[in-house]
């Protein structure tokens, strides 16, 4: 891009914190700039701008500008579409709606593949009536995933969650209706995010968040509230990569007979043996096999 001498001195860097209605809102210190995209982005050239991006902006008039460049990212998620995230707080409800562990495993793979640290959050803990609901949480804790158990009605786990968020850029993600917006409102009163109820007919949440937005926290850091989802595609990867996103496989992988073992049809596979011996949980392994087939089909398409 060629800038004349007067224009080049006005260009600034900022953080894209919201994209809505065809406009892009960039934060520069305490200032908020309403921006459009340079033509090359609208034509599909250059890196598409995502919430969380550091961008270069040329002022146009007043507090409006034009995004001319997206600066290099350290991380990128495609669901929700955000950049430069440190951690993903993956929220599921204890009940209403019931936890979908296959969907949880999908998001864990997505976060791990993007080098984003995952945190598993079990919300609506006030709905727990016994100890059986905790069994799956024990599994994920043994694997090594950080776990936080929360309830906005009982003020449970909120301080622990605040500490996890402090000084980091985090995305809150999970199905609709699990209470992501309610959690954020409780973590920082004043955000006043819209909340919704569970549909009695469909038994899943109604979408209350309509766009992705970066929200500043009083204790430092940012959070991204994002629309909920009921399905999630896996990121593009080579089939041999998938097993590396299941941390419990690691201790057994080196004992497999073949390098690049997919832990499926291969003989003398230490991971399959660990599943048979109960050292790797059967459902997690079945999710792995389902994901493996999807990754193989993706490879064939691309």
From TrEMBL:
* GO molecular function terms noted in the UniProt entry: GTP binding; GTPase activity; metal ion binding; rRNA binding
Subunit structure comment from the entry: Monomer. Associates with 30S ribosomal subunit, binds 16S rRNA.
- What organism, scientifically named, is this protein from? Desulforamulus aeronauticus DSM 10349
Cofactor list: Zn(2+)
| One cellular component term from this protein's GO annotations in UniProt | cytoplasm
InterPro entries recorded for this chain?
G_CP_dom, NA-bd_OB-fold, P-loop_NTPase, Ribosome_biogen_GTPase_RsgA, RsgA_GTPase_dom, RsgA_N
Q: How is the cofactor bound?
A: Binds 1 zinc ion per subunit.
What PROSITE patterns does its record include? Answer: ENGC_GTPASE (PS50936), G_CP (PS51721)
**Keywords in UniProt for this one?**
Cytoplasm, GTP-binding, Hydrolase, Metal-binding, Nucleotide-binding, Ribosome biogenesis, RNA-binding, rRNA-binding, Zinc
Q: List ligand-binding residues for Zn(2+).
A: 256, 261, 263, 269
Q: What is this protein called?
A: Small ribosomal subunit biogenesis GTPase RsgA
Q: Where does GTP bind?
A: 123-126, 174-182
Which family does the similarity line name? Belongs to the TRAFAC class YlqF/YawG GTPase family. RsgA subfamily.
Q: Where is the EngC GTPase domain?
A: 83-230
| Biological process terms in GO annotation | ribosomal small subunit biogenesis
Q: What is its EC number?
A: 3.6.1.-
Name of the gene encoding the protein in the UniProt record: rsgA
